[in-house]
Design a protein that fits this description.
The protein is of the alpha/beta class and 422 residues long. The protein contains 18 helices and twelve strands. 30% of the residues are buried.
């Protein structure tokens, strides 16, 4: 009897279990999922249960909407959403970045109010500085730089402007002659470093050869020189491959093509936010005569050129005719050192003729070559260069900015009272 009673109880229990399973197989399965993570995963996504007494598969889908999550610059933080806090997205995904920007703003405000001894940088507008010089009463003397150091030395010597010479850049960076071998990209790259080496409003005029192609190429060249930081750009009318002036007859493009090149350069100037000064140069004197060169510079002025230049004029009379042909436009003279075709004149004489700016294209490079050759001869034959040719180490450090750098770096030493700028 006892065994029969126990059997009936187990049979009754099994019967109720079967009834419960038929009613909700999912609920029975959930009883076995004691792990909370598994249970939540099961509730969010579809569950499939195979009833042991059924020939069909039953599916039950119970989707639960996910908890809101807040995005932090690419990072997910569910904890912040669980706390139901409104969180402002952070910049760059770094915790505390908003506080950093607030502190930076406070430091900037403090410096503006006199909380720091750091000098505020002047607004960069070298083109305006160059136009002011060209409209001034005096003639502008502009030696030619070929790298960042030579540009720095020109400004340090007290000049108010400088050129970047294509002849000198080709020689110093490629050890090649100025015969059209250097590219636009190389000239722009060197020009950017030259402009970075001087004060923001120290004007540098960049030699752009023939614009490196047709009128559209010239337009792109102007845009690139503006980005490099030039105050002015010099574009000539030679045919490719161009060649350095004062080297005999040089073929030039026809007048219509040359005027289109200048007009494209002026359009690039007008379409930009910078008022770069466009210098239009003619090399027609060497191959077509002075009269053609004079007619060309007049046409360049009509096309919008800000200043004009005729290369390799051969007498003072020709220089005066040039000035008389364009009385209301700034004119450039070129004092080629070492034996060029143009007579060497003093600045006051050039100014009396009507010139507003004079370039010295080879001085910096020429003296560097001569000094290096002399020093090398001294090392080879004497074992040491002549001391009279050398600056002291302190003078050399000062020329490259080392002493200025060391002085400024003292502000950031441990224990310094100066605050770190943003």
């Amino acid at each position: 009897m006892l065994l029969a009673s126990i059997f009936e109880e187990h049979l009754l229990l099994a019967y109720f279990c079967v009834l419960a399973l038929k009613k909700s197989p999912v609920s029975i399965l959930n009883l076995s999922l004691t792990n909370k993570h598994h249970r939540k995963h099961h509730q969010m996504f579809s569950s499939v249960s195979h009833h042991p007494l059924s020939t069909t598969t039953q599916k039950s889908f119970s989707f639960r909407p996910p908890k809101p999550r807040v995005r932090y610059g690419g990072r997910l933080h569910a904890a912040a959403a669980q706390n139901k806090k409104t969180v402002t997205p952070l910049r760059y995904g770094f915790p505390g970045e908003n506080q950093h920007h607030q502190r930076r703003k406070e430091r900037t405000t403090a410096r503006a109010a006199g909380g720091s001894t750091q000098t505020k940088k002047e607004k960069k507008d070298p083109a305006h500085a160059l136009r002011t010089l060209l409209n001034g009463p005096a003639i502008v003397q502009a030696p030619c730089a070929h790298d960042a150091l030579s540009a720095r030395l020109i400004e340090r010597a007290g000049f108010s402007a400088a050129f970047m010479s294509g002849f000198c850049v080709s020689a110093s960076h490629l050890a090649l002659p100025d015969v059209g071998l250097i590219s636009y990209a190389e000239m722009q790259d060197v020009g950017g470093r030259i402009c970075d080496a001087v004060s923001p409003n120290f004007p540098i005029i960049g030699d752009a050869d023939d614009g490196y192609g047709n009128a559209m190429s010239a337009k792109r060249t102007v845009e690139g020189y503006i980005k490099a930081g030039f105050a002015g750009i010099l574009i000539e009318d030679q045919m490719a491959p161009k060649r350095c002036g004062h080297t005999g007859p040089r073929p030039v493009c026809d007048r219509e093509t040359s005027v289109a090149r200048v007009r494209a350069a002026c359009d690039a100037r007008d379409e930009s936010l910078e008022d770069i000064v466009v210098f239009a140069r003619s090399d027609a004197r060497s191959s077509m005569g002075l009269d053609e060169a004079l007619e060309r510079v007049k046409a360049y002025v009509d096309a919008g050129a800000d200043a004009v230049f005729i290369d390799a004029l051969q007498s003072k009379e020709e220089m005066q005719r040039f000035c008389d042909a364009c009385p209301d436009t700034p004119k450039m003279a070129n004092m080629l050192e070492g034996g060029g075709m143009t007579p060497i004149c003093q600045p006051r004489e050039l100014h009396a003729m009507g010139f507003k700016i004079v370039a010295y294209p080879l001085s910096m490079l020429a003296v560097s070559v001569k000094a290096m050759e002399t020093a090398l001869q001294g090392i080879m034959f004497e074992g040491y260069p002549d001391e009279e040719l050398l600056p002291t180490f302190e003078e050399l450090k000062d020329a490259v900015g080392m002493n200025e750098y060391l002085e400024e770096s003292r502000r950031y030493k441990l224990g310094s009272s100066s605050r770190t700028p943003a």
